[in-house]
Amino acid sequence: MHGISNFKKKESNFIENFTHDISHELIKLCLSNKIGILELSEIKQITEDSKDFPLVIRNWSFGKLLNKIEYKSKLNGIKLIVS
User: Fold this and answer.
1) Domain coordinates in residue numbering, the chain
2) 73 burial via Cβ count (<10 Å: 0-12, 13-18, 19+)
3) Which of 11, 41, 56, 65 is buried deepest, with most CB atoms within 10 A?
4) Could you report the per-residue pLDDT of 25-75, keeping only the tens digit for each?
């Protein structure tokens, strides 16, 4: 059971780092291009599209990514609109 627990912890860490990297790059792109309003629409994962990604990425939560984007956009003075 230790192996499964260890794998789940590594998977969780990977997802945390992955969502951090994506949100960081998005905010960095906004800042470098002087974008003050970021609008995200139709954020969803389509099962058919996810078949091209490894298992870990297919099982991550878009909510975690959205939370990181919300936090970082607020921190950097970027208005976020989610529709």
Assistant:
1) 2-82
2) buried
3) 65
4) 999 999 999 999 999 887 665 555 656 665 555 566 778 888 999 999 999
